[in-house]
Amino acid sequence: MSLSSYRFTGATALLTGAASGMGEQMAYGLATRGCNLVLVDKDADRLATVAEVVRLARPDLAVDTYVVDLADLDSLEAKTSAILARHPSITLLINNAGVALGGNFRDLTAEEFQWVQDINFRAPVALARLLLPTLLATPGSHIVNVSSLFGLIAPPGQTAYAASKFALRGFSEALRHELADQGVGVTTVHPGGIRTRIAESVRIADSASEEQTRVSKAAFAKLLTYPADKAAEQILDGITRRKPRVLIASSAVTADLIARMFPASYLTVMQRLSPRGTRKRRAAALR
Question: Do residues 189 and 147 make contact, with C-beta atoms less than 8 angstroms apart?
Fold first, then answer.
């Protein structure tokens, strides 16, 4: 079934991770397009601020907020049922919320590893399952799952995060194929280096020293340069056009290309192509 462009005006979207970063910017973009909002986040204060901004700008829209810890999967079904009781006509689900965890696999506890899987993968799957009957009831509905650059490549020190984002990518692609003839579109998003609060909240293995934690967070923050508002617009444009994949920033586009060309050695190729790798080769040639 070929789906026409998604129509935001008058629709209702459920958006997770709506209190900051790309989620906050998508909330503003959705409101600009005339979409009613169900905003979900763990940060109650920031979430209330985002909702207030939207209400002031678009008093004609329905804007509700729900403070939810997506790591608490046991309570997610009840909270989703409460949302659906109040908003029975949701036609857009955007699974945007996510957390980061740095550290080599041998240094991560089972609890730390599972925490990432619960929020980044199991919660989006649970929400898709719980909302699917509602989405299927209105042909033209849409699901967005925000994966990552590390859902395209898997560098060392990112076993937990990459595992969750690769899993979300695989789930999304299979779901898109299943729903292709049932009137529901699915978009997978792979952002690369978006300027969000994730650098502040990134969790480092508890076994790491204070210095290791500081260095890891600083290095992570340096990667985040792409504006969140620009990324949000690209995602919303992808929804409008029913794009199966949205790659954001040149880092994601380049990584995707190299990973497809060199599936077993992409990391080595990318290191050689990096400015630092080029400088090292030039220095070696001068010796």
Answer: yes
What is the spatial distance between Cα 272 and Cα 8, in angstroms, rounded to a whole number? 44
CA 79, 151, 234, 216 torsion-angle sign: positive
For residue 11, the SS3 value is coil
Tell me the C-alpha distance between 88 and 163, whole Å: 33
The rounded radius of gyration (Å) of the Cα atoms in the chain is 19
For 176-203, what is the mean pLDDT? Answer: 82
66 a catalytic residue: no
Confidence of residue 273 (pLDDT cuts 50, 70, 90): confident
User: CB–CB of 79/127 below 8 Å?
Assistant: no
User: In degrees, to the nearest 5, what angle opens at C-alpha 203 toward C-alphas 160 and 230?
Assistant: 85
| Of 10, 280, 17, residue with least CA distance to 145 | 17
Q: Which of 6, 28, 66, 161 is catalytic?
A: 161
Distance separating alpha carbons of residues 101 and 112, to the nearest angstrom: 8
